[in-house]
Specification:
Layout lengths: L4 H13 L2 H8 L3 H15 L4 E3 L4 E3 L1 H28 L4 E7 L1 H4 L3 H11 L3 E7 L2 H10 L4 E4 L8 E7 L3 E6 H5 L6 E2 L9 E2 L5 H7 L15 E2 L3 H9 L5 E4 L11 E7 L6 E6 L6 H16 L3
Parallel strand pairs: 3-4, 3-5, 8-12, 9-10
Antiparallel strand pairs: 1-2, 5-13, 6-13, 7-11, 7-12
Helix pairs in contact: 1-2, 1-3, 1-4, 2-3, 6-11
């Protein structure tokens, strides 16, 4: 017995509507074309499926027997065809990255736009979080890559520098107008004027190794401590103090009116990517890294 999916669907449509006219409209066929297809189907199986009259189209006993079988065949074959079509259609691949808030709130939007053009089949999912959580996410596999200033080496992770950076002094526009443009010696910094990150932060630990200590006899003023560089930059802009920050703070552009002054001697602090050791970069990650480098260069890092 020869029958096609098209013939089975035609049979089911006529049985559902009890009308060749309505069934033909549903299938976007002419009534004559549908009638010819059903007659050919009946000839192939050797049985009449419908009793035709001017008033109604009714299933014969053979038609009633065939109906559930035909419905099951159409459902199963249709499902299989949909699965095959889905398997042959390229699916969007996902890249999961962790980025520190300073970068996420500055150049990340343009990085994502560039990625969508370079790799349209990739969807980038971004987690903006603290540097320590980013490294943890790469370690446990919830992130494909992490971006930030990373200090602590971890087994199973690969660290690569993306672009060079250094520690600089952030000053308010008013303060900067009264200062020289030449690099400032670390020894000339006033520790009491500095707004700082928590002492447990590796960036702050690096800073504290270079900032001069107050004499033991001097009263140590309470430090203004904030957890995020964005908060520190806002405080500096308001004239509430100065801060030593990574030079990639320049990526924030005109968001905060602060001046970044070089410090001497230079203290390097690279912006880096961490990934799992032994894992090759995907096309999506390569596009993300390239776009990040370009955006950082364009914005003055």
């Amino acid at each position: 017995m020869n029958c096609s999916l098209r013939q089975l669907r035609g049979f089911l449509a006529v049985a559902e509507h009890a009308s060749f006219t309505k069934a033909a409209a549903q299938l976007h066929l002419t009534q004559a074309g549908l009638s010819a297809m059903v007659r050919e189907f009946e000839q192939n199986i050797g049985s009449r499926l419908f009793e035709r009259s001017t008033r109604a189209v009714l299933l014969t006993e053979a038609g009633r027997t065939l109906l559930p079988v035909a419905q099951r065949m159409v459902d199963e074959l249709g499902g299989a065809l949909r699965q095959l079509a889905a398997a042959s259609t390229p699916r969007a691949r996902v890249l999961r990255v962790g980025v520190t808030p300073l970068i996420a709130s500055s150049i990340l939007p343009q990085v994502l736009r560039a990625c969508s053009v370079a790799q349209p089949d990739w969807r980038v999912e971004v987690a903006d979080m603290d540097r320590s959580l980013i490294q943890q996410g790469v370690e446990d596999g919830s992130l494909d890559a992490g971006f930030g200033a990373f200090f602590q080496k971890a087994a199973g992770l690969r660290r690569r520098s993306l672009f060079p950076a250094e520690l600089v002094l952030a000053q308010s526009a008013e303060h900067a107008a009264k200062s020289r443009r030449a690099p400032l010696s670390w020894q000339r910094l006033d520790p009491g004027s500095l707004i700082v990150l928590p002492a447990s932060n590796p960036i702050q630990q690096l800073i504290d190794r270079h900032v001069p200590r107050l004499p033991d006899s001097a009263a140590s003023p309470p430090r203004r401590v904030y957890s995020h560089l964005e908060t520190i930059l806002a405080m500096v802009e308001a004239g509430l103090g100065q801060a030593v920050v990574p030079s990639f703070a320049a990526l924030t552009g005109a968001r905060w009116r602060v001046h970044l002054r070089a410090l001497a001697p230079r203290v390097a602090l690279d912006y880096a990517i961490v990934t799992r050791s032994g894992r090759r970069d995907s096309a999506g990650l390569t596009a993300f890294v390239d776009s990040l480098r370009i955006a950082a260069q364009a914005d003055g890092s």
